[in-house]
TrEMBL record:
PANTHER family: CELL DIVISION CONTROL PROTEIN 6 HOMOLOG, CELL DIVISION CONTROL PROTEIN 6-RELATED. InterPro entries: ORC1/CDC6 (IPR050311), P-loop_NTPase (IPR027417). This is AAA family ATPase. Gene3D superfamilies: 1.10.8.60, P-loop containing nucleotide triphosphate hydrolases.
């Protein structure tokens, strides 16, 4: 996942990040709870407690499958309350940004980066390259001699 790699790179420069899969956490309350948990906030998760924990420090939020979120109150709250927040929204639906409430869209000032679909030959090349790292020598031979689970 390209975004996870970007977040890892940012962390090397001391910039913390939060990654939320909105397919898994689709309700605003579940998203806030997941953010709070990733920041070490256990009791009573809220935007106010998240803001206090950050203490004005910069952070990047990445929301995968954002189009699966049921309501975007959490996004509006982040944009309103957390000043030093970078926000990455990931969606398979190119029209998603156009469906956002104008108040959210104007605060986001989105820049769209489109990742095109791979062609079959490109996928084949990627898999060829990755198989070098997927198996150690003798791995397949060992698979053949292990006993199946009872």
């Amino acid at each position: 996942h390209a975004v996870k790699r970007v977040l890892e790179d940012l962390s090397e420069f001391g910039l913390p990040s939060i990654f939320i899969n909105c397919w898994v956490h689709s309700e605003s309350s579940a998203i806030i709870e997941s953010i709070a948990k990733q920041l070490g906030i256990i009791a009573e998760p809220s935007i106010e407690r998240i803001k206090n924990r950050l203490g004005g420090s910069a952070i990047v939020f990445a929301f995968d499958e954002i189009d699966q979120a049921k309501g975007l109150n959490f996004l509006y709250a982040i944009l309103e309350e957390i000043n030093m927040a970078g926000i990455i929204l990931i969606s398979n639906k190119p029209e998603f940004i156009a469906t956002l409430d104008e108040r959210i869209r104007s605060r986001l000032q989105p820049q769209i980066i489109e990742f095109r679909n791979y062609k079959p030959e490109e996928i084949k090349g990627i898999l060829k390259e990755r198989r070098k790292y997927a198996f150690y020598e003798e791995t397949l031979a060992l698979v053949g001699v292990t006993k199946p689970y009872a």
